[in-house]
Structure formats: C-alpha cells, structure tokens
Request: fold
Amino acid sequence: GAEAQAIARRLEAFSHPEPEVESAAARVFDAAAHPEEVLVDKFNMALTRAKLMCLQPATWLNDEVINFYMKLLQERSDRIVAAATNGGDRRSCHYFASFFLTRLLDDNGYQYANVKRWAKKFDIFEKEKVFCPVNLGNMHWALAVIYVQERQVCYYDSMASGAGERYLKALVRYMGDEMKARKNATMDTAAWHMVDTGRDTPQQKNGCDCGVFVCAAADFITDDLPLEYGQEHMAGLRRKLAGNIVRGELRYPGDP
Reply:
C-alpha cells in the first residue's frame, strides 16, 4: 500500500542519497580541506567542517548536528502544513533543541523556570507533536515525542535502557505547567499516557549510531510512518544528514 511505498522510498533516500546531496556530503568529508571552514550558516547556526566531522562512520553525533537537523525537520514540517489545503489538514509540529530537556531536567531535578519561555511564541496545545531530543550525559541520544492531541508522551531509545520514565514524567509535568502558565487552567496530568517504547524501537548494533537513530526516528514520526529502519541504513543516513545539512534543506519526493 501507500505506506509501504512511502517507507521504501524513505529508506532508499537513506541508503542512496540523491547525487546533489551526496556531492554536498563529499565536501564535509574532504580530508584536505580546512576544518574551520563554515559549510553552512542558517538558523543562527554556523557549522564548520570540524563540527560536521562527527557524521563520519563510528562517531558520536554532537548537539549542533542533532539540533540543525531538528531545524530542517521543522522547516519541512512547516512547509507541508502551509501547503495543505486550507491549512486544516495537518497540525504543525514543533522541534525543540536538545538543550530544552537538559534545561528542564538539570542537576537539581525538574526546573520549569529554566524553560518557561521556550514555548512563548506558539501555542503548544495546538501542535500535533512536539519532538524533544534527549542527550543522556553526552554518552547517548534518545528521543521523546509529545503527542499533544492524544495526550501521550513516548520515549524512543535505540539502546532500550529503561531510562525513559524520568523524561516522560518530566514532559507530562511540563505540559501541566504550560497549561497553568499560558491558559491559567489546571491540566489533568493523570489522563496522560506515558510509553517507553523499549525494544519496539529499532535497536542499534554498535555504540555510536544513537544520534543517527534519533534523526531517523524523528524523520519517520514526522510523517506518521512506522519505524521500519535499522542499523543497515545508518551509514547512508550519515552521508544524507551531512548533505542535507550543508545544503540547508530537507526535501523528499512528493514534498510541496
């Protein structure tokens, strides 16, 4: 069906990036080029070749790469929503930077005051999904997604570690605090459903691809596709991420 075709097309794009994306990626991995050359300057983020070198195989992704890719997903999502008939066909999504959760849950525990301005410019309760990359002690990446309209928060971890509960609880509490701050209303947090997806999320087979798995999950979940990718797609996806970031855009066939 249409969904299987969409997944097959997406995995093909992961495994064999288009020529223009591949040639942009080649600029990142040019060993003879200067490491401090700025390869992309967008979203108030200037990324040098040195920053993007983490997209080489067997390397842990840094915050800059994850956060730039979240911005590309944001831009693509906004474009699709804007093109939808009457704009009513698809609610918009929001993609937080990884620093959102490191500020919400700092060394002293839950700190709403640290992030209370983060959703000031939009109504979080009108969103379809809110994506929150999770940086676990600069050693591992996972992804939390708030399904706002379904009152559900899910945690996706490519090394199912059982660490999700802390983040799930914090995000439900955050939504309650947002409701109080923005709407002066009390949210029934008990009505929210928390799901640590565990091993239902595709699992990595090495110690360094967690960030690439997070980008894949965010990409698939944006389009409501089941998470049917795996370790074998990560090498190609690293090159695709590099090319998309240097080009400063993310498009798939059929996109507006």
Notes: The two ends are 21 Å apart (CA to CA). The beta strands are 38-42, 45-48, 94-95, 105-106, 109-110, 129-136, 140-147, 152-156, 193-196. The longest helix spans residues 63-83. The CA atoms of residues 38 and 77 lie 26 Å apart.
